[in-house]
């Protein structure tokens, strides 16, 4: 498996924590009997561990069942909390589909508009352009820490500093970055994805003190995550992130070197191919390339038959295999897109074997299509 974006295999320590917590933390953490109090202690411990790993305070951390729900809820609640200041939402053209959908929802609800900022050929925004777009009437701006499809990192710190001076909050999607690189204190609101760092599905929202949020959903005991989250899942997510952070430097070196191999060999050995994304300032584990005269679904199927699970189409809507909105925004080739997102323990031999097999696979698909 060479594409584990958003749904990585559960890390061994996280699996052990999950199984233990199924026995010890099964109860409702809101109950006052002994089992409920024990579950509450485990949930509080998970929140504290997540906060420590993400550079936050425990009271700044909210947990939701999925990353998509976390993104939707964060965009909606910050925009509603800021509706007196403005109703527009600024996003980059390469944000996840969930962000674009949430921004469109907010604009329709509040009578504002979505201001979309273009990117360069690497998929990176110009900080000055994004800040200029966040003028009067802006409720919030959203910018990913790095793109999970092409790996390019964004100038988050520069954008955040400028927006802070302008009084506009910045929501940063660290779903593709957390656990893989140091995200620092990114933005005013930060949304992370436990499934991407080797935990079970869980969305994590960090809201810095001073940011105004207002929910637009029915009242619940858990204001930000109605119904709460499953305690064993939260604990496993926290353990997985601790493990990812502890091994981050070694995993970076291992995977960065293999991505360099893929980028170099694909460009040299496959005719009519374009390797995309920043070759240097990028995530260590993500690489994408596009092959002319090749259908994305066909190349995914051909590679799967020889033992390689890869992605294609838009990373956030991969089940549709539609042309990637990220690649389209970059102005690069969208046809025959192949995406790799490498697991920390990926076998180097598997990556080299993939590079050996790829030219034949592309040639076979082109021949079948008469290209």
From TrEMBL:
Q: Does the keyword Thylakoid apply?
A: no
Its Gene Ontology molecular function terms? transaminase activity
Q: Which cofactor does it need?
A: pyridoxal 5'-phosphate
Alphabetical UniProt keywords: Aminotransferase, Iron, Iron-sulfur, Metal-binding, Pyridoxal phosphate, Transferase
UniProt cross-references to InterPro entries, sorted A to Z: Aminotrans_V_dom, Cysteine_dSase, PyrdxlP-dep_Trfase, PyrdxlP-dep_Trfase_major, PyrdxlP-dep_Trfase_small
Spell out the reaction equation it catalyses.
(sulfur carrier)-H + L-cysteine = (sulfur carrier)-SH + L-alanine
Where the record annotates domain Aminotransferase class V, the positions are: 2-182, 233-354
| Keyword presence, Iron | yes
The record's listing under Pfam families reads: Aminotran_5 (PF00266)
State the family it belongs to.
Belongs to the class-V pyridoxal-phosphate-dependent aminotransferase family. NifS/IscS subfamily.
Q: Which PANTHER family match?
A: CYSTEINE DESULFURASE, CYSTEINE DESULFURYLASE FAMILY MEMBER
List the protein's name.
Aminotransferase class V-fold PLP-dependent enzyme
């Amino acid at each position: 498996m060479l594409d584990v974006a958003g749904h990585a295999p559960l890390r061994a320590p996280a699996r052990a924590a999950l199984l233990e917590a199924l026995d010890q933390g099964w109860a409702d953490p809101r109950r006052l009997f002994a089992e409920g109090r024990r579950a509450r202690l485990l949930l509080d411990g998970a929140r504290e561990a997540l906060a420590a790993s993400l550079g936050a305070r425990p009271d700044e951390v909210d947990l939701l069942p999925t990353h998509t729900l976390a993104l939707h809820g964060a965009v909606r609640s910050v925009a509603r909390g800021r509706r007196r200041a403005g109703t527009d939402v600024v996003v980059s053209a390469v944000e996840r589909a969930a962000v674009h959908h949430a921004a469109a929802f907010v604009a329709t609800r509040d009578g504002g508009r979505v201001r979309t900022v273009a990117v360069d050929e690497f998929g990176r925004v110009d900080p000055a352009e994004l800040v200029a777009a966040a003028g009067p009437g802006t409720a919030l701006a959203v910018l990913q820490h790095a793109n999970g499809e092409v790996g390019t990192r964004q100038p988050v710190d520069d954008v955040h500093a400028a927006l802070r001076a302008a009084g506009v909050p910045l929501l940063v999607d660290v779903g593709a970055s957390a656990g893989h690189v140091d995200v620092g204190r990114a933005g005013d609101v930060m949304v992370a994805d436990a499934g991407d760092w080797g935990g079970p599905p869980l969305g994590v929202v960090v809201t810095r003190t001073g940011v105004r949020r207002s929910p637009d959903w029915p009242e619940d005991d858990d204001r930000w995550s109605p119904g709460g989250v499953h305690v064993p899942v939260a604990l496993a997510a926290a353990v997985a992130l601790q493990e990812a952070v502890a091994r981050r430097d070694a995993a970076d070196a291992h995977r960065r070197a293999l991505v360099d191999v893929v980028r170099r060999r694909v460009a040299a050995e496959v005719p009519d191919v374009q390797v995309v994304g920043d070759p240097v300032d990028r995530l260590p584990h993500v690489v994408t390339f596009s092959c002319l005269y090749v259908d994305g679904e066909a190349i995914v199927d051909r590679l799967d038959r020889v033992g390689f699970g890869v992605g294609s189409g838009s990373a956030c809507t991969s089940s549709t295999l539609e042309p990637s909105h990220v690649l389209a925004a970059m102005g690069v080739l969208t046809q025959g897109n192949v995406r790799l997102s490498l697991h920390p323990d990926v076998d180097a031999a598997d990556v080299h074997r993939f590079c050996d097999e790829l030219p034949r696979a592309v040639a076979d698909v082109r021949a079948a299509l008469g290209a």
